[in-house]
Amino acid sequence: MSRLAEFRKLEQKMADQLAELESMKGDSGLQQEMDFENKLRALLGEYGFSLRNVINLLDPHASRRSTGEAAPKVVRIARNVKIYKNPNSGELIETKGGNHRQLKEWKTEFGADVVESWRTQ
Prior knowledge:
By secondary structure, this protein is mainly α. It has 2 domains: 3-67, no CATH class; 82-117, no CATH class. The protein is 60% helix and 7% strand. The chain is built from 6 helices and 2 strands. A two-stranded antiparallel ribbon has the order 1-2. The longest helix is centred in the first third of the chain and has 23 residues, at 3-25. It is elongated. The N and C termini lie far apart (82 Å).
């Protein structure tokens, strides 16, 4: 592309952007937002606050998100071991959850409340 063609293309882009800027200046919604921003900045100056102070007042965790600071770690509590003893066979099952294969089989065969009565711990 020649330098002249590049110049004309940029000139056209600039004319389009200026036309868009002029149309935005007449937009009442934009004018309202600009008025709000000016009043807000004046109010912040009057009380000696910054935007960051206001954000921290409204959402204390927002500053961590913006700075990349990690949230405090939540410590999970370990599950307790449950021990079931089948009185028919004497078999023991130790589990921390209800997803144990043999325990599920017992619950389908004998019923969940019966198997829970076999719990020793």
